[in-house]
Amino acid sequence: MSDIIRLTAADLAEKLSEGEISSVEATQAHLDRIAEVDGDVHAFLHVSDHALEAAEAVDRRRAAGEELGPVAGVPLAIKDVLVTTDMPSTSGSRILEGYMSPFDATVVARARAAGLVPLGKTNMDEFAMGSSTEHSAYGPTRNPWDLDRIPGGSGGGSAAAVAAFEAPLALGSDTGGSIRQPAHVTGTVGVKPTYGGVSRYGAIALASSLDQIGPVTRTVLDSALLHDVVGGHDPHDATSLADAWPSFAAAAREGARGDVLKGLRVGVVKELPDSGFQPGVAESFRAALETLEAQGAEIVEVSAPHFEYAVAAYYLILPAEASSNLAKFDSVRFGMRVDVPGGTVEDVMSATRDAGFGPEVKRRIILGTYALSAGYYDAYYGSAQKVRTLIQQDFARAFADVDVIATPTAPTTAFRIGEKIDDPLSMYLNDLTTIPANLAGVPGISIPSGLASDDGLPTGIQFLAPAREDVRLYRVGAALEALLVDAWGGPLLDRAPRLGGSLLEGGAR
Ligand code: GLN
């Protein structure tokens, strides 16, 4: 495996700025890696024809002595939920097959302006509905740690690309955990920013009150660097916060260096049932807490009595919003059209949506329209919104006593492809610990906490902070990461065993 692709984005950026490596070389190394392993991993739906061109442009600007941003020349993978002018944007759906957007999502435009080099578009569950990438209309992505297992979802493509060294940086979207849970099962880092902290303009909407765009990387600092590039106010997104954000990269560097853990109050939710977690996941979580405690952090039990209703509330609010957002795929405005000779406009619409949407999308549209229908609105959608308020109050009370809250990122390690696909409820329950953050709008980070002792697969710890305090996540995440990587004698991904045909040790299986 080429050494270039093993570099973190931060290290690669440094070598680029020192002229040790060109962006063309870095980009070519990643394109070669994609060619080598993506037939097995299937992290990408589309590989860019313009990557080398973009890399050349950065190299030229650098050679001309232009002042470039801190990550200029570093390659980037982009979840297919984000629209791009030079590559198709399908959101993992047949209904948008080949769809070309007339504009770039704000985060993509910002990435390009910062000199990041788009490598391609990554696979995802259709319209970001799922926890395994198995709901993609284009076939599942496989977990590089074990090709028979899921890479998480909905952003399994972005996480797998980063874990398999196909890209140093990736963008994801997180509506109920789609950045954090894939990070957890692939041994990578994922951040869901504060709601409104990163623009959603040009992100194909799933549930507008929950969606956030964020980074997927191999280190906390790399996530911070990418967040610094894509975050901040965007007049095109009415929910975008006007805040001036601090440098997240500076916070990550401070965390990795200093003793930010001394006196830090870390909340652990009393009501999260220990029994609901795979033993190896719970054990790794407790060990990470002990590492924090050994550095002077205080572990405090907090009560969040309404967390247990989060999954139920989410799976009413999300389908309700999704059914409305997806109404625009009407055979007229975007994408696919199935002609019905002699049929009415409704016949065409119905045939198109029947052929264009997969079973999970149909399930949620039906759920959502039912929950919103007259006579049921108060009982379902209205009640779910009340639960959402109670969860927000749980967070407010807890954050009065602690600086951050910690949970295992998800209840289990990567499950097998096919294991939950016919059991939607058990798939939904995988979102137990990630969903509350979306319902409350607070930021969350998942970092690798180790390998579960029972199956040897990666597992993660999630930190949550009050809204607008994303900076805490980078400080605390980088501090714990530094301690764990030290204890492991190197990054977790370097310790990947050859599980079921892992690709991490180089070469094809
Ligand atoms: N697994 C969750 C769902 O299926 C999360 C989706 C997401 O964050 N986009 O809705």
UniProtKB/TrEMBL annotation:
SUPFAM superfamilies: Amidase signature (AS) enzymes
Any one GO CC term of the record: glutamyl-tRNA(Gln) amidotransferase complex
Enzyme Commission (EC) number: 6.3.5.7
Catalytic activity entry: L-glutamyl-tRNA(Gln) + L-glutamine + ATP + H2O = L-glutaminyl-tRNA(Gln) + L-glutamate + ADP + phosphate + H(+)
Origin superkingdom: Bacteria
InterPro entries to which the protein is assigned, alphabetical: Amidase, Amidase_CS, Amidase_dom, AS_sf, GatA
Subunit structure: Heterotrimer of A, B and C subunits.
Protein name as catalogued: Glutamyl-tRNA(Gln) amidotransferase subunit A
